[in-house]
Structures are given as structure tokens and as C-alpha cells.
């Protein structure tokens, strides 16, 4: 079981550290998303070390489909496979139940899928998800859940949440069994439960209380950033997070923009992940402290400045906006790679700044100044 220690608080915001078998995680933390055991955009493991990555996140469903979790196990687990010795969190595959809606059928025992790669039939339930994640040997495994749509009706959401609670009990039992086996690679694998309930605060709170009694290693808030407004998301966090154990890490799944992260930290969240920095980077959209830039714009054709003055990322230390724009226009992979590296460095650096601000008791003023700088974030 991971050891979670709160070092400082400011309002509901927490500065903590979380000990794991693969190293201690300083929180708040942004996990860099490598869905299929690699960050999209030709980012290597040594790049992750250079840009200050603490935790890499991979996806159970995608690795089960390709190359197969049994293959990864035979090669010594995910850490050995991708040559990364720091913490890895694996998503349970539950979100794919939501995102692959046209290809699935949900039953009490689990979910019947058609693979998005070759159409073959797949069954995944709580036990299967735990077995796959045990084969992958990640540091933290996520419980198998259903992520109901934010616009689903109340009856559907309540039934879905009840089933997710039953699935969580099965996940806990299966993981305890797997961690006792001699052939399990990581017998210290941890389990995080997931709070669901769409945008119904009373369902969320009731579910938070139920799963808090299960004595898990950490707790996630799932099913947000899936269509609801930012205001609705912040309201649900305000209502729900106080009912999750304060002596365990809290993870807001799939979130988000720099502004979302600042708001999440203020509401007591420790862990974040999102595909935005890598996805936006691959399309030439880069984050700066003065908003987001679209490097494909003509205005950068002769711009010999780095993406952001003073930035220590591999792109800004060497290359100009004009050169990176040229690479993107020429469809050279290096352009994507440099933008992704910059964006992940920006996120990782922002999290280090947040931790320092919390250490020094100035998070409120840091957040205000940062948000003022990011005002044009959705823009240029």
C-alpha cells in the first residue's frame, strides 16, 4: 500500500507525496499520457526523463488489444518493456466502454466489445481488467467502471453507479488474489477506485461515501470533462472531493487544460492526466504563459524567437518558431515531436511551480497570476 503524506495545505489545496514501489510521487502531479506505452509524437522514454515527467499513464484496453498483455508480461512487464523505471498508472479500460459506445454491450458480468483494430470479440469485466493490469505490472491499477454520459438520465446513472460499486468490490478481491501469486511481477500493485455519478451531486456524494469505506490506495473522480461545462465540473468537484478520504490521493481523470488543473488543485485534487498537450502539440498548438499559439499561422513564418522566451524545453533551447512552423508545414515528424516535448515540459513545469507555491503558502496568488497570463489560452 502506498504511503501518502500531506506536507502543506492551503484551503482545500494539498501538497503531498505518495510513496510507491517505483519511487515517490510529488503531488499535485500531471501524468504524461502514453496510451499504447509511448507518448504520441515520437517521444522516447529518455525524453520523459529530460522534461521532468514523474508518472507515465498507459491504457489497459489498448495494450490488451495490441501487442497483448500476455506479451508484455513475457517481456517482464510494462516498465521493462518501455524502459521506464518510474511510476506507471494504467487506466482500466472503463473509459473505452464509454468512448466505444457503438461497439459494446454492458452486462452485470462485464462488457462485450468489438475490437476497434480488427473487429474481434472481446470480453472485459472487473476480474479481466485486474488480470490484464497485473500482467502489465503497473504501479497503480484503476478499478473497472462504467463512465456514463454527462447527459444520461438520472435512473440510468444511478443503476450504472450501483454496478460500478459492485464491480469495484470484485476488482479489490481479484487484485488481492493476484498480488499473492508467485508469478505476479509487481506484487505491490495498488488499486484506485473511481467515483461516478455524472452531474448529479447527491449520487456523487453517496457513491464517494460508499467507496471510501473500501480502504483503497487512492480515489479518482471519473466521468468529468465528457461534455459538461467547466462550471459544472468545478461544482461537482467542490461537492464530491470533501467526501473522499483526505488521507489518500485524489485523481481527476482526463483533465485537462492548464486552467482546469489550477481549479482542480484548488479543490483538493492531487493527480491529473490529459491528452491535450500531446494532441494539441501534434497539430502545432503550443502552450505558453501568455496563452496558446498556433504555429501554423502565417505570422510565425519569419519569427526567429523560441516558442517561449526563457523556456528550458528541448525545442525552445534550440529552435525557432519559424523553423518549427516549416517542419509542421512540410509534414516532418520532428515538428510534431518538438511541439509535444514543449507542451509536456510546460505542463510538468507548471506542476512544479504549483508545488513550490503550495510549499511557500502563495498558491492563491500564483493561481491568479497564472490564469491572467493564460487568458487567451483557447485563442490564437
From TrEMBL:
Pathway noted in the entry: tRNA modification; tRNA-queuosine biosynthesis
UniProt xrefs under Pfam families: TGT
Region (RNA binding), start-end ranges: 254-260
Record protein name field: Queuine tRNA-ribosyltransferase
EC number(s) on file: 2.4.2.29
GO cellular component, one term: cytosol
EC main group: transferase
UniProt keyword annotation of Metal-binding present: yes
Binding residues for Zn(2+): 311, 313, 316, 342
Cofactor(s) needed for function: Zn(2+)
Binding site for substrate: 91-95, 145, 196, 223
Assembly information from the UniProt record: Homodimer. Within each dimer, one monomer is responsible for RNA recognition and catalysis, while the other monomer binds to the replacement base PreQ1.
Organism of provenance: Wansuia hejianensis
The organism's taxonomic lineage, starting at the top: Bacteria, Bacillati, Bacillota, Clostridia, Lachnospirales
Protein's job: Catalyzes the base-exchange of a guanine (G) residue with the queuine precursor 7-aminomethyl-7-deazaguanine (PreQ1) at position 34 (anticodon wobble position) in tRNAs with GU(N) anticodons (tRNA-Asp, -Asn, -His and -Tyr). Catalysis occurs through a double-displacement mechanism. The nucleophile active site attacks the C1' of nucleotide 34 to detach the guanine base from the RNA, forming a covalent enzyme-RNA intermediate. The proton acceptor active site deprotonates the incoming PreQ1, allowing a nucleophilic attack on the C1' of the ribose to form the product.
Cofactor note: Binds 1 zinc ion per subunit.
GO terms for biological process, alphabetical: tRNA queuosine(34) biosynthetic process
Family label: Belongs to the queuine tRNA-ribosyltransferase family.
Gene it is expressed from: tgt
Domain tRNA-guanine(15) transglycosylase-like: 13-371
Keyword check for tRNA processing: yes
Active-site residues per Swiss-Prot or TrEMBL entry: 91, 273
Catalytic reactions of this protein: 7-aminomethyl-7-carbaguanine + guanosine(34) in tRNA = 7-aminomethyl-7-carbaguanosine(34) in tRNA + guanine
PANTHER family: QUEUINE TRNA-RIBOSYLTRANSFERASE
Keywords assigned by UniProt, alphabetized: Glycosyltransferase, Metal-binding, Queuosine biosynthesis, Transferase, tRNA processing, Zinc
